[in-house]
Amino acid sequence: MIFLIALASMAGFILIALADLAAGSGKARLKQYVLTGITGYIVLFLVIYFVLPAFIIQNILWLNAIGIFFAVYVLFASKQTGKETKKNTGLNLTALLFAVLFIGAVVCVIANFAVYQSTYDHVIKSTEEEAKPLDEEKTPIAIAPSSVRNMMNKKMSVVPETQLYQLGSLQTQTVGDTNEYIAPVEFDGFFKWVKGGETSGYFVIDATSLSAQPEFVENKLAYVPSAYFHKDLERIIYSRYPTYIREGEARLEIDEDGKAWYVQTVYQPKLFTGKANGDDIQVVVVNPYNGESEIYDAAEAPAFIENTIAPEMASKLNTYYGEYSGGFWNRYFGKAGVKIPNDNGTEHGVTAVFSEDGSIQYFTDFKSPKENIDSALGYSMVDGRTGEVTFYGGEKNNGIMDSSGAVQVVEKEYPEKKWEGKMPVLYNIDGNPTWVISVLDANGIFKKYAYVRAADSDYVVFGDDAESTLQAYRLQLSTDPSTAESTGDAPVQQVSGEVTRLYIAGESSGTKTIQFLLEGQDTIYSISSADAPYAIFLKEGDQVSFEAAMHEDASSATLEQISIVGLN
C-alpha cells in the first residue's frame, strides 16, 4: 500500500512531465524526467514509510508539493533553453498546480475553523446532576500509574534477557473480577530488536491493592510497537488502513484466556480537516503473534476490550465538548458556555477509573476560561468503549474547588518532604463531592491517600490505604451538622441499643452535634440538635432506636431522627 501512496504523491510531477514532453521537449528532457522521477519516488516512499502520514486531503497536498518541486528542478536544470515555449508549457502547468495546492491549503485551514461546531455536535454526550455515591467495593480507588510503573521497573530483572527491553505503555483493564494494570515489555532500540526478534511478555498487577506486586507473564510477541520494518505494529496498521488517523499509541489488552492483543484507536477525519467525529470512532485490533488485524466500530469491538477509546481521544472529546459548543470564535471571544478541561489527569489530561459494571471511564474536571478562578464547573466521564461524554454538574458541584486547587491543598501539608498530589479524581462520598488524591514522593513511590472535601478545603484526611482513609473521612464528615443528610444511597438499617459513650460538641451557631456509641458496636452515630432538639438530653445508659442510612462495616453514620426511651 505504501508503494501506491508514494505513486499517488507523484501525480503532480507526472502531469507536468507529460505536459512538457507532449509540447516536444525532446529525448534529453525525457531522460531527466525519468531519473528525477525515480529519485522523487524514492524520497517520497521513504518519507511515507517512516513518517506514516494518513492519506487524507491535506497530506496528499503536501506530498504532491514535494513531487512538484522535483519537476521544477527538471524544468530549470534543462539545457534546452532555446525553445522557451516548450519550457513554458511545463512552467505554466507547475504554476497552476501550485495555485491549486495553495487554494487547497487555504480551504483546509478555513475548514479546520469552520467544523468546530460540528465536532461538538457529533460528540455523544449526556448530562447528569449528580454522580452515584461511592461504593468502595464496586468502584475501587486505583493506584496512581506512576507508582505502578515504579514497581514494574524494579521488577524488570525477572524478564528473560532483560537488557533488551524497557517497560511499555500502561493499560487499565478488568480481567474477570480483577481490576488490573497491564504493561508489555518493549524493545529498547533497533539493535535490541535485531537481537531479540520477539518480546518476552508483559507485567500485570492488581490496580487497587497497595500490597500487590507486579507479576511477569511470559508471552512472546512478534508484532509490537517497538519492532521495526515489516513487524512494526504502527506500520502494519498504516499499510492496511492508510485513510485512518491513528490516535494515541497502540496498547496491550488481554482476553479472558490470557491471549494478548494490541488495540489502536483510529478515525476517518472530517473533510479537509484532521478533526474526528465523536460518533464515528473505530478501533484496529492486531494479533501480535501473527500480525493479523480487524477493524471495528469502537462500541462493537470484542467484549474483553475495555479501552477502544485511547486516553488521547478521550482528551480530544473533552476539548470538543467543553470548549466548542459555540464554535471556534466563541471559544476565544464570546466564551459563552465554554468549559476548559483541566490537565491534571494521569494520561494526556484524563485519568482512567473503574465503574460499577467493570468498564473503564476517563475522568476530567472542567474550569472556567477566566483566569484566577479555582472553582470547578463540573466534571466528565468518557466511556472507554463508546466515547460517550457524561457531564456531571448540578447544585452540589457548584463552587467546589477544581483538581488544581485540591492538589495544592494536599501539597501544602508536606512542603518539607516535597511530596506531590497525583491522580485527583472527584467521587461522590455520601452526597459530598470529594477529591481522592494519591500522594507520591519525588520518585513516584506511594506515601498516602488524601480525601479532600471539594466544597471546604479544611476537611482533609490522610491515610495509608483507601479504605481506612475513607472511613476516617466519613467520620470527620459526621461531626459537621451541614452534612446531616449526606448519606447518599447507603442502605437504611433499623438500629437500637444502649448508649455507652456520649460526646456533645457545640457550634458557633448554637447548634450542637451529639455523638454516641452503643453497647457492642463500634459505629459512631451522630445527630444534630437542629434535626432532633431532644437529643441534647441524651445520656449514657439510655435505650435508643433509630433508622440509619449506612454502608456495611461503616465506622460512622449520621442520623436525622432518634427515639429515646422514657423521653417524649
UniProtKB/TrEMBL annotation:
Query: Keywords in UniProt for this one?
Result: Membrane, Transmembrane, Transmembrane helix
- Which regions span the lipid bilayer? 33-52, 59-76, 96-116
Task: Write the protein's name.
Answer: Uncharacterized protein
What taxonomic lineage is listed for the species of origin? Bacteria, Bacillati, Bacillota, Bacilli, Bacillales
